[in-house]
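Continued from yesterday's entry.
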Amino acid sequence: MPQPERIFTLRELTRLLRLTPKRAAQLKRLGLLRADTAGYRFRDIVAARAAASLLGEGATVRQVRAALDGAKRLAPGAESPLAELRLLVHDQRIVVEQDRLRLDARTGQGLLDFSTGDLERETRESLAMGMVRPLVPPADAADVDAYERVVGIDPHYAAAWNNLGLLQHRMGRYEKAGACYRAALEADDSCCQAAFNLGSLHEDLDDITTAIVWYRRALEMEPDYADAHFNLAGVLGKAGQPDAAALHWRRYLELDLGSPWAQIARSHLEEPTPPPDLPDDDGDEKPEAGA
């Protein structure tokens, strides 16, 4: 029988988040802290922590309130956008990071001219710790419907097409996902995320040759796209091109030195020490173990 969800008191929440009186007052103005008798679920604590982090990074209460309102529009199916989306302060405004895209939290406008290295690194590390899809809520029909309405209003919104493709892709609707990624590229032929996602889609379909084409296309658009180097190295290895793969493993390590994914890249570049030759009973060498 499942255990009932733990409910925290205001005192516990304040202690867990180490809130100063000033920060607690700001969270109350945002409606995230309520009367002393109110209980808080873990999701409420995550949301309060996210807001406190934004305030700590220099955002104002007004900016956080506007970002929260915008986040509700970006993720209409989210019960608690602050807990389910990744928000941060960048260039004195609050932005949402979704599947390697950066959006203005207030307006939803896509911001595509940024370095994705830090986001990709943190996302991969989050996934390595067991946090599945930490940046966006799970895909469902409501999410798809919301993005379909967005692209219906503005069919030239590349980021929305790409996000819709990601949702379809995650739901196993590969043909629809591919159509959305291509629509993103038609709307913005420099949308490297859509090219990367087409590579990932074809890799999922075991079409390695086409995956290589799209990963290379993504790198033509953004030469320092760390994830594209990582994935391209992997598929080149599958295609029997170890020397070409090594170039991209090395470039990946130039862009990302510290994450668990960097350790994987290094493992592909290490020369294994061959085991000593052990004779069979008849004196022949044993065959190598299959990979």
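--- second protein ---
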Amino acid sequence: MSNNKKGKALRKILTTAYTAVLIGASGMVIADTLFISKSLAKFSNETAAATNTSTGTSASGTGTSGNSSSSINSTSTGTSTTPTVSTATAYEDDTKSITIETYERNNTQIHVATVKIKGNASIKTALANETYGRNVTAKTSTTSKSVNAVLAINGDYYGARDAGYVVRNGKLLRSESQSADQEDLVIYKDGSFGIIKEGDITAQQLVDNGAMQVLSFGPALIENGQIAVDSSDEVGKAMASNPRTTIGIVDDSTYVFVVSDGRTSESKGLSLKQLAEFMKELNVTTAYNLDGGGSSTMYFNGQIINKPTTNGRNIEEREVSDIVYL
């Protein structure tokens, strides 16, 4: 074989080997980002800041954390109370009442849990397997049962991303900003809601101001009682019609947890604009979009209320990083 042919053969071998290495490395990066679980810290799903008495002000000026007379008291230890009503669509005890209703809008089933706080109760969050980390997941129902939740929805799936503020039950878990324009929902110690942009304030400042939960997905759907999105707004490359999860506040003691079905013949799914229009119907003053699609799940009184699906064929829960619950 001539030197020229030998050189060509060697280059071909080296090129093939280099390509294989690149493909393998890319595969590892993708697997590491999407599939490989990384535990970064253990996290108790009990309220982490039960003894936090700091006083803060929410973005709307109403977040007076540490107010002992507030209807939302984050010092609740999660001790269950005896329900006076407990059915498939209603629950009541001495701290809260919850009713489940189903609506139909835009060829889509929408499940609404209306929560009225009347005592020592608060909106809490819980992490899958009581672990903070990347791709650490469990079904919404599994995590809900582990904390004796009456009502729960999936959260922001923080574990699928490396950035975006994460505050859970008063504990700061991630302070890296996703972007200056990233809109987060802040739930303050007094139960008020605020929408912030990560470029305007640090995660530590939010905690110092009394933030108990910071959820980083978005966008905000309703701000100051007005629709905050238009028909061009969507998350990433998401389809316009999707299963959706959102949470909203009506007044100081009334909240709505909302999950819409989608991707099936029974339920087409909603765009963000359609979801915002529906939330406005519910008279919320602030509403925020959480992780949707196959993640969208509502759990109530031991049962899954909606029909979660990723592909539209199989009705089953997707494992997620976290839940929002009472």
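The chain has four helices and 23 strands. The radius of gyration is 22 Å. Will compare against the first tomorrow.
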